[in-house]
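Ops channel
N.P.: pipeline sanity check, posting one input/output pair.
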């Protein structure tokens, strides 16, 4: 009985550590077009296919159009946030080229924990 309990506790610890890793903060700061990060900053076109490592990332094919809403700053400037149709997520800035700048003045704001959760069918998913 004790052995089964030990195994269950070990599985719980492993599950929790995997959850924390997949929802970890990618950056403390981001740049946006407005303080609420609701306005699109630019329109970009994918230059390569991209498949992200988890559900927080936006997957796309070369040639697809993406609207950019924020750019992580300071610790992780390579990741931008954007949408393609109904899909929303992070992607590397070097996988796209800027087609049109919609907002020139960027505002730097603190990120929130909810910035790094997966969103599926209007519900937050904890990995």
């Amino acid at each position: 009985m004790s052995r089964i309990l030990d195994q269950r506790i070990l599985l719980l610890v492993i599950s929790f550590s995997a959850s924390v890793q997949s929802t970890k903060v990618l950056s403390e700061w981001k740049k946006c077009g407005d303080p609420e990060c609701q306005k699109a900053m630019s329109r970009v076109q994918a230059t390569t296919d991209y498949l992200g490592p988890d559900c927080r990332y936006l997957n796309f094919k070369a040639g697809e159009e993406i609207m950019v809403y924020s750019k992580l700053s300071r610790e992780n400037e390579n990741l931008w946030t954007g949408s393609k149709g109904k899909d929303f997520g992070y992607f590397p800035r070097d996988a796209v080229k800027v087609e049109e700048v919609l907002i020139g003045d960027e505002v730097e704001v603190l990120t929130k924990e909810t910035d790094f959760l997966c969103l599926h069918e209007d519900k937050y998913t904890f990995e």
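N.P.: looks fine end to end. Residues 2-22 form the longest helix (21 residues).
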